[in-house]
Amino acid sequence: MSKTYMEVTVVLADTQFLTNTALDSLLSPVYASLHTITTRAGLQQHLHKEPVSLLITDPQLFDYGTVGELGQLLREYPSMGAVILTNSITHLKIKELNDNGIRNIVLKTDDREELFHAIEAALKGKKYYSGDVLDILLQKEGPLEDVSILTSSEIEIVRMIAGGLSTKEIAAKKYISFHTVMTHRKNIFRKLGVSSSSELLMYAIKAGVIDNIEYHI
């Protein structure tokens, strides 16, 4: 990987100083145009200003809000590839990323070659999962609580409920009606076999839907 790709512009969107420093050291000799951005506003400003070939980001640390919002950002810039570089990931999150068209995932514990394979695949419009990510995908035994029957929108609503948002606030945030949110809530409860918000949140925590234990009941 000694060739310098003068035509490729890369943006690192991460809030971890050590990660950004390491990536800069690793990628600068290869890709001549490399930019590090630590805020969503800064990222949107940069994307509006000049074309970007590749976005390397960690959605768990960067302030996208939801995976769906990251997916929307990528749809706004269809010529930009994306590589997810994260500390850890679950089967559910891989599915959620995949549902949003994001299919290049590497862990921060993976080696150099895995990262470059993912980058090259993303630049060519192909998918690449590192070996450790594939192991997660191939695991036959998942958690006792399975939320794979929920849609991406329903999972997003579960997280909003966990964040303490009311039905009215969820409706405003998702730009849908109060009645539609209530319908989603009923469908979520029915699919998961729970009868209260408390049961729903405990179920979601065990299933790995909620990363942060700071939730509201």
Structure description:
The structure is a single chain. The radius of gyration is 19 Å and the shape is globular. A 6-stranded parallel β-sheet has the order 2-1-3-4-5-6. 48% of the residues lie in helices and 15% in strands. The termini are far apart. It is an alpha/beta fold and 217 residues long. The model is unreliable at 212-217 (pLDDT under 50). It has helices at 17-27, 40-49, 67-76, 91-99, 112-123, 131-138, 152-162, 167-174, 178-192, 197-207; strands at residues 5-13, 31-37, 54-57, 81-86, 104-107, 128-129. The protein has 2 domains: 5-138, Rossmann fold, CATH 3.40.50.2300; 152-207, Winged helix-like DNA-binding domain superfamily/Winged helix DNA-binding domain (Arc Repressor Mutant, subunit A, Orthogonal Bundle), CATH 1.10.10. The chain is built from 10 helices and 6 strands; from the N terminus they run E-H-E-H-E-H-E-H-E-H-E-H-H-H-H-H. Helix 8 packs across helix 9 (178-192). The longest helix has 15 residues, at 178-192.
